[in-house]
Amino acid sequence: MTRAAVSVATVYRMGRHPGPESEVTMTARCMDGGCAWESEPTPRPWSGAAGFASHTATTGHTTFAVRLEYIALVTTGAASEEGGG
Q1: First vs last Cα of the chain: how many Å apart?
Q2: What is the dihedral of CA 75, 79, 13, 44, to 10 degrees?
Q3: HEC string of 14-42?
Q4: CB-CB contact of 28 with 52 (8 Å)
Q5: CB neighbours (10 Å) of residue 61?
Q6: What is the pLDDT of residues 5-37, one digit of tens each?
Q7: Do residues 58 and 50 lie in contact, with contact meaning Cβ atoms separated by under 8 Å?
Q8: CA-to-CA distance for 50 and 56, rounded, in angstroms?
Q9: Which of 34, 46, 52, 65 is least surrounded by CB atoms within 10 angstroms?
């Protein structure tokens, strides 16, 4: 009888945590030459996108560095212990 090697893969699942500590924050800054425009941090990325769209309409600047930041809540329990599959 031959024995085959068994390969085990770790699976990471991402889900939105319902708590306030899981808030997403978006910021953007103009990358056009020496332009100093920056957006205010916002928990609503769509309103931040409207801000740099408005800056483009006003100045013609089209390149932005956009940053999305969020808090990662990590658990190490097995999926069966967390009620998952």
Answers
A1: 33
A2: -60
A3: CCCCCCHHHCCEEEEEECCCCCCCECCCE
A4: yes
A5: 16
A6: 778 777 766 666 666 666 788 999 999 989 999
A7: no
A8: 10
A9: 34
Q: Which residues are CB-neighbours of 49 under 8 A, at least 6 positions away?
A: 28
Q: How confident is the model at residue 43 (pLDDT cuts 50, 70, 90)?
A: confident
Q: Is 20 helix (H, G, I), strand (E, B) or coil?
A: helix
Which residue do the tokens 């708590």 mark?
A: 19
Mean pLDDT of 48-66: 92
Distance set, CA 21 to CA 2, 3, 10, 17, 73 (Å):
52, 48, 26, 8, 9
Q: How far is CA 14 from the centre of its chain?
A: 12
Q: Is the sign of the CA dihedral 66, 49, 43, 82 positive or negative? A: negative
> pTM for the whole thing?
0.59
